[in-house]
User: What shape does this take?
Amino acid sequence: MLKPAELLKNTLGLLKTPGNIITAVILLCGAVATVVRFGWGIGAVTNLDDYYPWGLWIGFDLLCGVALAAGGFTLAAGYYIFGFTNLRAMWRPALTTAFFGYAFVIADLLYDVGQPWRLPYPVFVSQGTTSLLFAVGVCEFFYLCVMALLWFVIPCEWLGWKKLRAMLVKITLPLAALGIILSTMHQASLGGLYVMVPSKMHPLWYSSWLPVYFFVSSLYAGLSMVIFEGTLAHAGLHKYMDENHVKSFDGVSLCLGRGAALIMMGYFVIKIGGLTLDNGWRNIFSGYGLLWLLEMALVLVPAFMFAVGVRERRYGLIRAAAGLSVLGVMLNRMDVCLVAYNYNLPTHLKYFPSVGEITLSLFMLVGLVTVYRFVCAKMPVLRDHPDYKPEA
Amino acid sequence: MRKQGRIAMRRRQFLKILGLGGVAGVTLPGAAGAARFTHDGSPDAVGVLHDSVRCIGCRKCEEGCQKVNADMLPPLEKPAEDVSVFEQTRRPTFKAYTVVNRYAPQGHAPVFRKLQCNHCQEPACASACFVKALVKTEAGPVVYNPKLCVGCRYCMMACPFYVPAYDYHNAWNPLVYKCTMCAPRLKQGLRPGCVEACPKEALVFGKRSELLRLARQRILDNPGMYEDHIYGEHEMGGTNWLYLSPVPHAELGQPEVPDVAAPELTRGMLGSLAVIAGVWPVILGGAYSMSKHYKKLVEEARRKGAQQPEGQCAASDDHKAPCGSSDKGQGGGQC
Assistant: This one.
């Protein structure tokens, strides 16, 4: 055991690299903002008001977070249901991201809702079944439970809990199927939340098809995120990977890139068709129109980059495409939540996130990355545990 | 009315697609007929008619509201006599359930309008609330239960009239605030505080059906004085508060909203959730059993010594088939 003085010295010793210093500063600011939030209320840290009840925390942390965590269920479908055994190496990192991504969404909601201690109410106390938010809440709750069980195989291997692991592995397949169903429902329902406000949303974004848009874009967001994150992991977490993982990454990114290219083309067609059906093209010649076109460019360009990258085996191009499409999905979610919503309010009533909100969003992001790095360092995520043969 | 045309169009399309892939259309009763499900309210439901032709902007209603809700609301920031409040366009907040604004329509003397919860017949807020903290009562008022509220503020997102407000600076018991139509007073046989305080009968309390008749009568009896439109008769499926105005309602800051009730907008999506839950397991189960069977066949063939494509799907991979061909369910080798 270390003595407290030594522990302090070691901890301070970590603050030598710029990355660690930035991390420490963000964590410190986040801690301060947390105290202010719970001591003085939501209004003390956010710019939210009666016109904008949902701000950056919902737009970025929740909508973007949930969309980008979709790699969990898409890979579950590919690996467990459709039997693409070549995806094996990326299943665990995708699951880890999805699980902790959702856990951090819940953590974020604890800050965002007024009475966080009542967060279980929709599931256990009073069920507002007419609400799509109820569908979102219940599906996310059960999905988090499902992912916790799926993911717990990893710490079981790490800790050597063989019996528990064997039990969990037995129920993996039904859990994976359940996870896919729950994901489909709540990804779509998240878009459905905005179906109720036709008069408050810009017509370029409002559509009764929003649930479909959200679900389909979450599919390619998930696939792109697995590639994007794998790229980052290869840069930063290389030492925790085994040979098999390192070798298979390029192959996996070919498969996922091809899938993403196809889904993105489909998404593009759906969006164009949707806008045409809603007779929305006359809104295109405006600032909002430009933004909408930028969004569409961030679908079409990476889609072609994926397609060309896969055909010509240009892995750099595939990775760049993954980064771009992740950016595109994030832009779309922020647009829906913060730009298209309340588009008709006068400028002086519009919302811009406060320093406190941005700080806490960064805090959550850094927290997520830190937990992810810890898990990858300690547990068999990017490598196989020597005691267990590959499941497939 | 291009905008209204657009919205009506959306509703038709919406009923046609009814959620994902149109599958829902088969399973949801009544979907095929594209019938409207608008609820005409309970026959005895009450409401209030606000007549901007009669309103003189005295703000006695604000005072009356505060008086009867003194347990929830602080005293008015500026007394009713202070007309400087009209320099700004205000909205209901957690400090005031109702406010009166002054509008200056072109070519017309200033017009006053009272803002508060419209108590929709099919409220977006109640439909949006995921814990049933907001409920539409048979009598008419939309009431709020502060003991259930989680503070997600989806009601505020959903309300097309920008009514519910929140006290963001309360750390331990932040709540949603909105007009209650004085539901507790109605139970005692009293009228809402604001109506009681109005000296000009610009506010009339009564059964919604009778208020509609009265409003039509006023329009008919005073040719040229009223805009021929009762705001709230059809807006968002109809509201229990109704408005008369000498100028188009949009000029009094009334939001342009569709005639369709909020729950009807989400009905299809809610129905298709059940479809997803029913259809996905079947599709996933089928896909799983096919891929499992295929894997078995590949294994058997391999054991018999048949040639199977094998090898890593890595950069060094030299077989020409694009990697995506594994999408077709090549369960065996690695891509």
Remarks:
- Chain B has two domains: 1-38+264-290, 39-259.
- Strands of chain B lie at 46-51, 99-103, 111-115, 134-136, 142-144, 165-166, 176-177, 203-207, 241-244.
